[in-house]
Write a structure and sequence with these properties.
single chain, 190 residues, alpha/beta, Rossmann fold, 5 strands, binds adenosine monophosphate
Length: 190
């Protein structure tokens, strides 16, 4: 069983690569962004509260996403492995994830970071916003805010995994297939 954290700023290609990894390895995909958008679509109280925060381009409270991930791990005891996409986004979330893994007798094998510069990210997100219907992809100011949140609150998560000897970085610009091959090469060595 492999459990992977796919890391990178908004627009780095985590969703695209996750999909390909699911097809190849049969991972259960846990994307906190997707889980939050599902709550919004269902109109739950959690979703309504989260939407206000997401519309500001900032992170929702740790306890909200930690609770959602905990539920999804427990709901999938037969999983071949999990791929975490957009989680953990703070050091507190990373620590909580380690505790949840230990509690369930599993562990994170490694973090794979997709590296893409800020200019390319803004360009990609604005293009994605034309078709994704995501309000947070359509406004350049909001995109900059999300990238800034990533730099201040999320980047330290890379150090957290580096200290555990679990960090690998991969260039996230280029052909999707080529990037996918690089990711698979890293996973196959875990
Ligand atoms: P994403 O789809 O991963 O780009 O996430 C969209 C938005 O959902 C983010 O801008 C945050 O407001 C919120 N979000 C998603 N995942 C997390 C997380 N792990 N921690 C806090 N907020 C999150």
């Amino acid at each position: 069983m492999q459990n992977i954290v796919l890391f990178g700023p908004p627009g780095a290609g985590k969703g695209t690569q996750s999909q390909k990894l699911i097809d190849k390895y049969g991972f259960v995909h846990l994307s906190t962004g997707d889980l939050l958008r599902a709550e919004i679509a269902e109109g739950t109280t959690l979703g309504l509260e989260a939407k206000k925060i997401m519309d500001m381009g900032i992170l929702v409270p740790d306890e909200v996403v930690i609770g959602m991930i905990d539920n999804r791990i427990k709901a999938n005891p037969e999983a071949k492995g999990f791929i975490f996409d957009g989680f953990p986004r703070t050091v507190a979330q990373a620590e909580a994830l380690d505790s949840m893994m230990t509690e369930n007798g599993i562990k994170i094998n490694g973090m794979i970071a997709l590296v893409v510069d800020d200019e390319e990210l803004t360009k990609r997100l604005l293009i994605r916003g034309q078709t994704s219907g995501r309000a947070d992809d359509q406004n350049e100011e909001l995109i900059r805010k999300r990238v800034q949140e990533y730099s201040t609150k999320t980047m330290p998560v890379a150090d957290y995994y580096t200290k555990q000897g679990k960090y690998s970085a991969i260039g996230g610009i280029g052909e999707i297939e080529e990037i996918f091959t690089h990711i698979c090469n890293v996973i196959d060595k875990f």
